[in-house]
Amino acid sequence: MESTRDIRRRLRAVRGTAKITRAMQLVAASKMRRAQQAATAGRRYSIRLEELADRLLRMELPSGDELPPLLRPRNIRRRCIVFVATDRGLCGSLNQNTLRLIRESCSDNASYVAIGRRGGQALAALRLPLIGEFSVNDAVPSHQSRAVANFLRDAYLSGEIDSVEVVYPLFINTLRQNPVSVRLLPMGDFGESIRAKRDMLPDAPLAMPEDGRPMTVEPSLLEVLEVLAESFLHMELRHIFLEAKAAEQSARTVAMKSATDSADALAKELLLAYNKARQAAITAEILEICSSKPAR
Fold first, then answer.
1. Nearest-angstrom CA–CA distance, 6 and 13
2. Which CATH number is 28-208+217-251 given?
3. Euclidean distance between CA atoms 82 and 149, whole angstroms
4. Where would I find the beta strands (DSSP E) of the chain?
5. For 72-116, how does the pLDDT look when each residue is reduced to its tens digit (9 = 90+)?
6. Cα separation of 128 and 109, whole Å?
7. Which of 57-61, 161-165, 257-261, 270-274 shows the lowest per-residue confidence on average (mean pLDDT)?
8. CB contact at 8 A, 80 and 165
9. 3-class DSSP state of 203
10. Residue 8 burial (CB < 10 Å; 0-12/13-18/19+)?
């Protein structure tokens, strides 16, 4: 049986750990609310942008014009998989669940881009070819998401890669973060993508009403599609990062709450064991005094 000194030392350590995890839980909860609001606010914009692109692509281009390179179909020989992970740990099994989806989609013709330090470390441990590594802050500033979009666009246009797939944790609610995989390049059927998003997101906006009237696009349909393709790539990546940040802070809040509850439960057990050990020591001393012979 442990001595009261050892139990008291363990009890002090567990209570100190509980204070740390409780503070981390409060910090993560504060960040979680902001991240969740940013992610849910960006969903409406993301779906509306896809609906606009879908309508423009259904219009006929003037004779002699071709679709912009980002919108043209392409034979896929070299895949690029973007793994969106976290910079810090203590978020439960969030990264491992997303990495499991990466392992399922591994192939010899794939190269990888890591978002977050944990993602780079995981891909390096698996000895997968890493062609880029980026870090994105909690606020997801536009210049950081644009840097990732420009890197992927340049690699795609140069022929280094033929497709871009993003694997990331989708924020559903505080307790649920589902790893999903979406294809960004080449940009294909936006209608199918919109339907998939509506199935995944519980608060997706209603579909825009159809308007059969003829539309006039200025300065020209081709120029608008070129600008729209690059803007869509950047904004879709930024929305994905916002979803991943909301999932990260939610998972960290839940993990820290679970750690705090476990520490409190262990502290109660140690306190009970300490009281039992102390009572046993007192009883042993009383028995020793009672059984001792009086001095003559």
1. 11
2. 3.40.1380.10
3. 11
4. 79-84, 110-115, 130-134, 163-173, 176-185
5. 888 889 999 999 999 988 898 999 999 999 888 778 889 999 999
6. 11
7. 57-61
8. yes
9. coil
10. middle
Reply yes or no on whether the pLDDT at 193 is more than 80: no
How far is residue 49's CA from residue 54's CA, in Å, rounded to a whole number?
9
CB atoms within 10 A of CB 160: 12
Give the residue among 98, 93, 87, 94 at the shortest CA–CA distance from 182: 98
Q: Which residues pair with 165 in a beta bridge?
A: 81, 183
108 and 78 Cβ atoms separated by less than 8 Å = no
Give residue limits of the domains in the chain. Answer: 28-208+217-251
- What is the C-alpha separation between 264 and 18, in angstroms, rounded? 7
**Alpha helical stretches, state H, 2-88:** 4-57
Q: What's the pTM value of the predicted model, to 2 decimals?
A: 0.85
Structure token pair of residue 235: 């904004």
pLDDT for 194-230, tens place per residue?
Answer: 777 776 776 666 666 676 777 788 888 888 888 888 8
Helix (H) / strand (E) element for 247: namely helix 221-291
